[in-house]
Design brief:
By secondary structure, the chain is an alpha+beta fold. The chain has a single domain (about 1-75), classed as Glutaredoxin (3-Layer(aba) Sandwich), CATH 3.40.30. The chain is about 35% helix and about 15% strand. The chain contains 3 helices and 4 strands. The strands form 2 sheets. The chain has a two-stranded parallel sheet. Strands 3-4 form a two-stranded antiparallel sheet. The longest helix is centred in the N-terminal third of the chain and has 15 residues, at about 10-20.
C-alpha cells in the first residue's frame, strides 16, 4: 500500500487490518517527512493520492474493504474479518 503518514484514510485502512494482519502488508511511505520514507518509489509509480493498493501489478485507488482486498489478492484464509 502506498500511503502517507498524514492521510486519515490510510490510518483508517491500517486499523481495519489490526496489528497482526497489518504486519504482513508491504507499506510504502510516500511523504518525505514520514518514517522510512520512499518518495522515489511513489514518484516512479506516479502515485497522486492515498491510499493506493498495488496488487498483482494492478492499481486500486482509495480505501478498500477487507473483503475486496481478499478477493483481488486471491487471499485463501478465513474471511470472518473483525476490526
Amino acid at each position: 500500500m502506498y500511503s502517507a503518514f498524514r492521510c486519515p484514510y490510510c490510518h483508517h485502512q491500517k486499523e481495519l487490518f489490526g496489528k497482526q494482519a497489518w504486519a504482513t502488508i508491504t507499506y510504502i511511505e510516500c511523504d518525505p517527512k514520514g518514517t522510512n520514507p520512499q518518495p522515489d518509489l511513489c514518484h516512479k509509480a506516479k502515485i497522486k493520492g492515498y491510499p493506493i493498493w498495488e496488487i498483482q501489478g494492478k492499481i486500486y485507488a482509495g480505501m478498500q474493504s477487507l473483503e475486496t482486498l481478499a478477493q483481488i489478492s486471491g487471499y485463501q484464509g478465513k474471511r470472518n474479518f473483525k476490526n
